[in-house]
Design a protein that fits this description.
By secondary structure, this protein is of the alpha+beta class. Helices cover 34% and strands 20% of the residues. It has a five-stranded mixed sheet with strand order 1-2-3-4-5, with helices on both faces.
Length: 164
């Protein structure tokens, strides 16, 4: 799938996992900086752990990990991780597609990479029969919220946390 002349969106492979682990650990760090009481502190092995986790998702027929790649040098510019989720009584929602992660390298933000990844994940979920797409974003991540709103997402839930 080509998003533009500048990037290619394709399924991730095992070869991509080290870079994806680094990006996933970066995502953890950003969230931890937003709210260190709510989000997991990235440990020294966060990159390996995230790479391992995303590797498990590559084998799941109900999940996808897509990467944005520079076609000239094959650098990974970002990734999106999405999955089909069944009906959930505890969340009071029907079956849905869920976008769990979307992250772009700092040097490639604001160039349409996140939009291309988001639309590719939405298309994958549509092709798999998802009736809707849900995602979550950190309260303080205003840039992500603006991105999601421009792609037709609306606010439906607010998570609240109280430390004990």
């Amino acid at each position: 799938m080509t998003a533009s002349n500048e990037i290619t969106i394709r399924p991730a492979t095992r070869h991509d996992l080290p870079v994806l682990g680094t990006l996933g650990a970066t995502l953890m760090g950003v969230h931890y900086a937003f709210d260190p009481e709510r989000f997991i502190k990235p440990a020294s092995d966060a990159e390996a752990g995230y790479a391992w986790f995303l590797g498990t998702q590559l084998r799941d027929a109900d999940a996808t990990v897509l990467v944005a790649e520079d076609p000239t040098n094959h650098d990974i510019l970002g990734y999106v991780y999405a999955a089909l989720e069944p009906l959930s009584w505890k969340e009071l929602r029907d079956a849905a597609g869920y976008i769990h992660d979307i992250v772009v390298t700092d040097s490639h933000r604001r160039r349409g990479v996140a939009s291309a990844l988001l639309e590719a994940a939405i298309q994958w979920l549509r092709d798999k029969g998802a009736p809707r797409v849900i995602l979550g974003t950190a309260e303080r991540n205003e840039a992500a919220q603006r991105l999601f709103a421009t792609h037709g997402f609306r606010r439906t839930m607010i998570e609240m946390t109280r430390e004990l």
